[in-house]
Specification:
single chain; 78 residues; alpha+beta; three-stranded antiparallel beta sheet; elongated
Length: 78
């Protein structure tokens, strides 16, 4: 869980994902360590393109998954 949390917090800093939903997800997951959670985080666009995180966490397993999607900005920056 600690490594997973580090990756999520790094994404907030590096890609501009919103910290509030990330911290809520971390708190909920830590309070329910054996449960399975699937969650999509809002897209960050700090680097000039969209970066999205799909979280798949199962506390009963040794390996957890983060699917990272990268795409052009869905909106015009100007």
């Amino acid at each position: 869980m600690d490594e997973y949390v580090q990756l999520l917090r790094a994404a907030v800093q590096d890609y501009g994902l919103s910290s509030e939903p990330v911290e809520r997800w971390i708190e909920t997951t830590r309070n329910n360590p054996g449960r399975q959670f699937d969650y999509s985080l809002n897209v960050g666009s700090k680097l000039g393109f969209d970066v999205g995180y799909e979280l798949s966490y199962d506390g009963s397993k040794n390996v957890q998954v983060i699917i990272v999607s990268v795409s052009t900005l869905d909106h015009v920056v100007g």
